[in-house]
Specification:
Layout lengths: L27 E6 L3 H4 L9 H35 L2 E7 L43 E5 L10 H8 L3 E7 L1 H14 L3 E10 L3 H11 L5 E3 L1 H5 L10
Parallel strand pairs: 1-2, 1-4, 2-3, 4-5, 5-6
Helix pairs in contact: 4-5
Length: 235
Amino acid sequence: MNWKTDFRSLYYDGAPEPADPRLNPKETALLVIDVQNTYLQRPDREGLSKDEQRRYDLWTPFHDRMHRQVIPRTAEILAFARKAGIECLFARIASHTKDGRERSLSQKLPGWNNLLLPKDEQPSQLVPQLQPTGDEIVVTKTTDSALTGTNLRLILNNLGIKTVVCAGIFTDQCVASTVRSLADESFGVIVLEDCCAAATEDLHRKELEIINMIYCHVMSSAEFRALPSLSSFRN
């Protein structure tokens, strides 16, 4: 994989390769988006109807990717970021009210996205493997974009952050919405493709092609750690 040439849409066919981002750890933040219990919980397949089993099986590749790749690699990049002095932040979907009446319209419409996640209940919590440590900041949102639905913009500005490195789910929904918002606010954005997932691999890759080069740079977690400006933190 070569982040400088991969995940390109037709818009950037033939465009010159981007330069390596020059990152100052004190001006860089890692943002982990929506890796919450609700998205990893699964019922017993044997107790489901035939149609429910069909949908269960369609989601199995997502769960495999989350457990085998996204969660462990995100845990690794969190450890790396903490060692490098990069600010680590977390975003999660949760309602402040029990009935979710303050949620944005996109989270009230009928369908898969209509999840009621009161903030103090177990399904809305971050997964155990990706918990904040010390005084790391968690923002709670009732929108897809972590920037639009919280005071994250103010927090990043107050921290002196210029570049935000994004990981989490879902690539084509809350991750992409957050990336666009950050780019519109003139933050530099990096998306760690192996620390993200969508419902299908095709949706994941297509969304990365859409946002790459214009809203962010897409690279793997290994490529991020290998950036020359972070070389002193690799050992």
